[in-house]
Amino acid sequence: MQIYNIIFVFNYFCILKFVTDPLSYVIQYLREIMKYAKLTKEQFEELNEEFALFLSAQHIDAKEWASIKDKKPDLAEKELEVFSDFVWERVLSKASYLDHFSSNTLNLFKCESDTIERIVVKVNREDIDLLNDIDFNWFLDNSKDPRIEYLKGKKEYTQDRNTEIFDLIQKGGVVSQGQLFEAIKKMITA
Which has the closest alpha carbon to 126: 117, 115, 137, 135? Predict the structure, then answer.
């Protein structure tokens, strides 16, 4: 019986908090489940107009936002985090290709809805650095060189699609248009 009283009191306070300060309650809830990373200051500056629209959708104007930043910095921080997740979710949902370059390896990904396809290009030359234009152009001109290995594979996502793509971006992957992936795939399947 005592556990039911505790649950009732907890639920009562949650409802009371939601009624008295709904925005704060929702932001607190969403903050606890943040999926991605907070955008950088530079990214926020680039997305200034989108952030203003995001706030206006919550009926927060510039004056109220200034007040929240001043009087409730924790709430302002949570708003920034929720917006960050919103932006990441949009970007990741639209991402179809990722490229990851290192000095002697290219990892190219095609991100489908249920599967991710990967092509690995490994150049077995000690003096190569695919991060500079001269060596990268050598690779493009000599793609049939026997010192270049091509591997490909495909798998289903082991986590949520966007979470896996975000993890690849955190490890250095860059969203691309997929021209390199498609060109190499065509070359190695021909």
Answer: 135
